[in-house]
Design a protein that fits this description.
alpha/beta; 4-stranded antiparallel β-sheet; 28% strand; globular; binds adenosine-5'-diphosphate; binds magnesium ion; Fe-S cluster assembly ATPase SufC
Length: 252
Amino acid sequence: MLKIENLHAKIADEDREILHGLDLEVRPGEVHAIMGPNGSGKSTLSYILAGKEDYEVTEGSVTLDGEDLLDLEADARAAKGVFLAFQYPVEIPGVANMTFLKAALNAQRRARGEGDISTPDFMRLVREKAAALKITQDMLKRPVNVGFSGGEKKRNEILQMAVLAPKLCILDETDSGLDIDALKVVSDGVNALRSPDRAFVVITHYQRLLDHIKPDFVHVLSKGRIVRSGGPELALELEANGYAEYVGVEAA
Ligand code: ADP
Ligand code: MG
Ligand code: MG
């Protein structure tokens, strides 16, 4: 599904390279955790996958189902079924949450050659998903994320994910700053969305989130490369030993 090969990347205005030849392959149904010390390039990787401006790929490739992902604009990536959840969800003043969700869903449908969803069907879909996440009518009517608490923003993000039904979900450090209840919302939401045709890349510094979302594979990112890969036990080892042995480690 997702194939990253020899990815090198930097910040557009700077010379310093941040990712130095990163390789990763994610198949449908899999959950991959990417862990690593602060500053190792985790967020840079998620921004590159999201198509954020300011970041520049200098070498290597990223494909989604064989198609060049880097060639697509950010909204085209979303339409292809790539969903990114960031540490700090954006607030969109003036745009009602419902309106935003419907626009996002219809953009995705049009890109797939499908017609817009009917209003009754959309309302039914959103109500069903919102109820499961304890999202109130009020939260659906308010501007996207404006005045939402940290936990509400996270629930809203899971709602977006549930409505858009992406095939690849990338979560960057969604656990930092979350209290235990919000953490449960995120992990329960992700677990409910796990399916054989959907994959997750969960990027986190802490092992905590992985107590609730059990990954199939764990990778250690250090200095812009994946230096080690293993199963869930690798996360526990990192929790026990920290990242000390990976600081300064070059990829094998
Ligand atoms: P992580 O998410 O693993 O903590 P980041 O991808 O945020 O790592 O950062 C990787 C490296 O790139 C760090 O050395 C960081 O200081 C640098 N970096 C990230 N974003 C920027 C930016 N916008 N401008 C300059 N340096 C940056
Ligand atoms: Mg960081
Ligand atoms: Mg980060």
